[in-house]
Automatic annotation (TrEMBL):
Name assigned to this protein: 3-dehydroshikimate dehydratase
InterPro entries to which the protein is assigned, alphabetical: 4OHPhenylPyrv_dOase_N, DSD, Glyas_Bleomycin-R_OHBP_Dase, IolE/XylAMocC-like, VOC_core, Xyl_isomerase-like_sf, Xyl_isomerase-like_TIM-brl
Gene3D superfamilies: 2,3-Dihydroxybiphenyl 1,2-Dioxygenase, domain 1, Divalent-metal-dependent TIM barrel enzymes
Residue stretches making up the VOC domain: 290-409, 437-587
Keyword tRNA-binding: no
Binding site for Mg(2+): 440, 518, 596
Organism superkingdom: Bacteria
Length: 631
């Protein structure tokens, strides 16, 4: 499988784009004509620059408004094509994309278009050029790949073939299964793009909202399965028009693009038995049975302060590392690790971000297989010297500067706590709060990084993404989307901040980058837990009485039940099926980190998004950070 990406997909000038594309591992590049025209180098120099990066020019594009033109425009179209063929010869590429005509002057008729392409094929052959015809979703006469194929079929010229683009097919809701009847050798090139489902003008949707396969809502996998079934074995390329991508950093977006193609083709190979696809060998997406631990990097004093907060939450310090300044706090199935080492990765994380979640440990069936898949998808394995009494736990570098370790039950890794930690007796006796496990981890990042995080998790782990929701902060919107598995043993919420005035944006600024902003612990009885926390000296976030008045109006709650919620500072939500959700929040720790305690009843599957504005307003009232905007 050869991979490519169109230069229009990423930011920078042509030289910057090529460097990022090559570094990400692509084999080739589509030269978008405007990128070439804006660059100050000759065609030969550009071609050599591409080859110097170890790339090939897989496609030159686009050539517009060709077929079905009346005279004198028809003659002019052929003259334009001849000039492009000469240019392509200088560049060193032999395939040009011709998109279906959108000119109001164009004339319809499949035979007329086929005649034009037959003549163009003759001219192209003299230059050693092939032409590929693509149906634009908004083409004047041809907007369906089936019509484009019929034109190519009737043109009946070896230098004329079909170019397929997933966006143009799927945006018009054309069944991709119709591709299976097209001979694979007549498909000259395949372009891929995903997109969120938005009801808008097709051209505007295409030009501004495309994203990488797996990042949107279109069935790109189904499309590619149909293409693979034809026997097509050519280049698989990305053509992504996206305002965020054009304004972002070329390097990470290129890495995302390559990861998306590897992930896509791996899924196609698994879902389409018998199809031969060259893709790196890797295990299937990894099932996660739970969150084994969350590790904080901190100074001695901040670790003591965090330990005091954990104590009020009912945690006990149960272990000390055999050779490092690392403590283990536990309650139920929740393991919290506080690392105060003065060297190593955790210390570097602390120096950069202050007290933060530097490491997350996940329970998987096979830790080594997890790293193998991550490596195949472009993730970087993580290793540091193993000290006395330590296990070599498989790990990768995650996003936002953090690390992810993997624990399985098939090796000594299952005994990590008894091997690496010496039991200790916590002098402070906390009232058990009956916290059971980590319900979800909430990570905050800049909004334009959200798709990167989403692709990272969904390509590596056996998860699905929930629809994106808007969380209303008094200072602006925060976009939120959850990644979760069917069992609910892994839930991660991604929260994208667009400005620093929001609570999430402030956290990003003060933390110097993306990070875990809060942990949510599950309990089976929120009120019993709240009572135990009160005994421990826990002071919950104070919620405005106005919230509870509105809660009564929305749900018509029993007075006694409403008073109970109010007296404990518990927030409440109910879904359309009658499932209930209860939330209790800690005060802030540091620059905006906090804990949440939740209870789910009746199959409630959400995250209480409707309560977020009231929680945020309460947090801002209690936040006492100099210069923090209050919205």
């Amino acid at each position: 499988m050869k991979t490519a990406i169109a230069t229009v997909s990423i930011s920078g000038d042509l030289a910057e784009k090529l460097a990022a594309i090559a570094a990400a591992g692509f084999d080739g590049v589509e030269i978008f004509e405007n990128d070439f025209l804006a660059f100050d180098a000759s065609p030969r120099e550009v071609g050599q620059m591409v080859r110097d990066h170890g790339l090939e020019i897989s496609l030159f594009q686009p050539f517009r408004d060709f077929e079905g033109m009346p005279e004198p425009q028809r003659t002019r179209a052929f003259e334009r094509a001849e000039r492009k063929f000469d240019l392509m010869g200088e560049l060193g590429t032999d395939l040009v994309l011709i998109c279906s005509n959108v000119s109001p002057l164009s004339l319809g008729g499949i035979d007329r278009a086929a005649d034009d392409f037959r003549e163009l094929g003759e001219r192209a052959a003299k230059h050693g050029i092939k032409v590929g015809y693509e149906a634009l979703a908004w083409g004047r006469h041809v907007s369906d790949h089936r019509d484009a194929w019929e034109i190519v079929r009737r043109a009946d010229h070896p230098n004329v073939g079909l170019i397929l683009d997933s966006f143009h097919t799927l945006a018009r809701k054309i069944d991709p299964e119709t591709i299976r009847s097209i001979p694979g050798d007549r498909i000259f090139f395949v372009q891929l793009a995903d997109a969120p489902k938005i009801d808008m003008d097709l051209l505007y949707w295409s030009r501004h909202f495309r994203n990488m396969p797996g990042e949107g809502d279109l069935d790109v996998t189904g499309f590619m399965r149909a293409v693979a079934a034809t026997g097509y074995d050519g280049v698989i390329s990305l053509e992504i028009f996206n305002d965020q991508f054009r304004g972002g950093s070329a390097k990470p977006i290129s890495v995302d693009g390559h990861r998306s193609l590897v992930y896509l083709m791996d899924q196609v190979k698994r879902q389409e038995p018998g199809i031969r696809i060259e893709v790196p060998e890797m295990p299937d997406r990894i099932a996660v049975s739970g969150i084994e631990f969350v590790e904080f990097a901190a100074s001695e004093q901040e670790a003591a302060d965090l330990g005091a907060l954990l104590h009020t939450l009912g945690f006990a310090r149960v272990g000390r590392h055999v050779s490092k300044k690392v403590d283990l706090w536990r309650q139920g199935e929740i393991n919290i690790v506080l690392n105060t080492e003065q060297s190593g990765f955790a210390h570097s994380s602390y120096v950069t971000h202050g007290t933060n979640v530097c490491d997350i440990g996940l329970k998987v069936a096979d830790a080594r297989a997890t790293v193998d898949r991550a490596r195949a998808l472009g993730a970087e394995p993580f290793e540091q010297p193993v000290g006395p009494g330590e296990l070599n736990i498989p790990a990768i570098r995650g996003l936002g500067g953090g690390v992810m370790h993997f624990i399985d039950g098939k090796s000594e890794l299952a005994r990590v706590w008894e091997i690496e930690f010496v039991p200790v007796s916590d002098e402070r006796k906390a009232e058990p709060a009956d916290l059971l496990r980590i319900d979800h981890i909430a990570e905050t990042m800049a909004f334009d990084e959200m798709l990167t995080w989403l692709l990272f998790y969904t390509s590596l782990f056996e998860t699905v993404k929930t629809p994106m929701v808007d969380v209303v902060d008094p200072a602006g919107l925060v976009r939120s989307q959850a990644i979760e598995n069917a069992e609910g043993s892994l839930r991660i919420t991604l929260n994208g901040a667009e400005n620093r005035k929001t609570l999430a944006g402030h956290f990003l600024t003060e933390n110097f980058g993306s990070a875990v902003q809060h942990l949510a612990f599950e309990t089976a009885d929120i009120f019993a837990t709240a009572d135990a926390l009160a005994i421990n000296g826990f002071r919950p976030l104070v919620i405005s009485p106005n919230y509870y008045d509105d809660l009564d109006a929305r749900f018509g709650l029993d007075d006694a039940f409403l008073d109970r919620l109010k007296s404990h500072g518990v927030l409440y939500d109910r879904d359309e099926k009658g499932g209930e959700y209860f939330q209790l929040y800690s005060p802030f720790f540091g620059e905006g980190f906090f804990f949440e305690i939740i209870e789910r009843r009746g199959g409630y599957a959400g995250y209480g998004a409707g309560n977020a504005p009231f929680r945020i307003a309460a947090q801002k009232r209690h936040l006492r950070v100099k210069g923090m905007p209050r919205g």
